[in-house]
UniProtKB/TrEMBL annotation:
<dbReference type="GO" id="GO:0047884">
    <property type="term" value="F:FAD diphosphatase activity"/>
</dbReference>
<dbReference type="InterPro" id="IPR001453">
    <property type="entry name" value="MoaB/Mog_dom"/>
</dbReference>
<dbReference type="GO" id="GO:0042726">
    <property type="term" value="P:flavin-containing compound metabolic process"/>
</dbReference>
<feature type="domain" description="MoaB/Mog">
    <location>
        <begin position="7"/>
        <end position="176"/>
    </location>
</feature>
<dbReference type="Pfam" id="PF00994">
    <property type="entry name" value="MoCF_biosynth"/>
</dbReference>
<protein>
    <recommendedName>
        <fullName>MoaB/Mog domain-containing protein</fullName>
    </recommendedName>
</protein>
<dbReference type="InterPro" id="IPR036425">
    <property type="entry name" value="MoaB/Mog-like_dom_sf"/>
</dbReference>
Length: 274
């Protein structure tokens, strides 16, 4: 796996008060995993200036790749751009390129009054300075991905936009963080067993202790599926250790009287809502 460390900041009172369910952090986690980048932290915070600034300043000192999600709309509680600018002691200014793209793709002058236009262009009031770069990865969208120090990337909270922009940003992300194909090569096995976690705990600890001597990147985990009558053992590591990981899988199948479970079924079981 890559040595790049990542973090995700989910910004929005609506997440904290239960109005919406955050799916962006999971999407980002899967994207990082596919690139071989280690997602180390996910933080959910409200639309609070001091909390946003404090969180960003803490995380950018600890991680090389940070994304924020949410708080870049046109209403009074959308303060992410302004707060991100303050986090790095930068101004927030109306970006003419973004404004032009808004005009070309949305025709705001033709449909909004003076106050509405002011609020609309709030979404083009971005951090400014020599450390800021704005990407427009999707040709049909005016929405930018604003980056600071090519380390912090500011994204919308709407899942459809968050996901699409990140997918379109993949070539840029790979270039910035020098992600090579070999870095993204990983392997993971799942073993299904009817034994309880207490019954398999000692065995899994033995697997992990042995595996850690082979590679610190090998991780053995257990996931209970309440009400389904089984648990899943996860065996994760780098592609270069595939032979060793295969041996652990086979041992787990034998020791735990289990069977291999396809990744798509494990994903369905793990995310099924009762």
């Amino acid at each position: 796996m890559s040595k790049i460390s990542a973090a995700c900041i989910i910004i929005g009172d609506e997440v904290l008060n239960g109005k919406i369910v955050d799916t962006n952090s999971r999407f980002f986690a899967k994207l990082c995993f596919s690139l071989g980048i280690k997602l180390r932290e996910v933080v959910v915070i409200g639309d609070d200036e001091s909390q946003i600034i404090e969180t960003v300043r803490r995380l950018w000192k600890q991680h090389q790749f940070i994304v924020t999600s949410g708080g870049i709309g046109s209403t009074h509680d959308d303060i992410t751009y302004e707060c991100l600018a303050k986090s790095f002691n930068l101004p927030a200014e109306l970006n003419e390129e973004c404004k032009k793209r808004m005009q070309e793709k949305s025709n705001p002058e033709g449909r909004l009054n003076v106050q509405q236009l002011k609020d609309f262009y709030k979404m083009a009031t971005l951090p400014a300075g020599h450390t800021v770069k704005n990407y427009y990865p999707c040709d049909d969208l005016w929405v930018p991905v604003c980056s600071i120090k090519e380390q912090v990337f500011i994204l919308p909270g709407i899942p459809q936009l968050f996901e699409r922009l990140l997918e379109c940003m993949l070539p840029v992300i790979k270039k910035i963080f020098e992600v090579k194909e070999k870095d993204a090569e990983y392997i993971r096995f799942f073993v299904k067993t009817t034994f309880t976690e207490s019954q398999i705990s000692h065995q899994l600890r033995m697997y992990q202790d042995e595996a850690s001597k082979v590679s610190a990147e090998i991780k053995i985990g257990s996931y209970p599926h309440f009400g389904l009558g089984f648990n899943t053992v996860s065996i994760l590591g780098e592609k270069k250790d595939e032979d060793y990981l295969t041996k652990i899988r086979d041992r787990a199948i034998k020791d735990l009287q289990g069977e291999e479970l396809p990744a798509e079924l494990e994903d369905a079981f793990s995310n099924e809502r009762k």
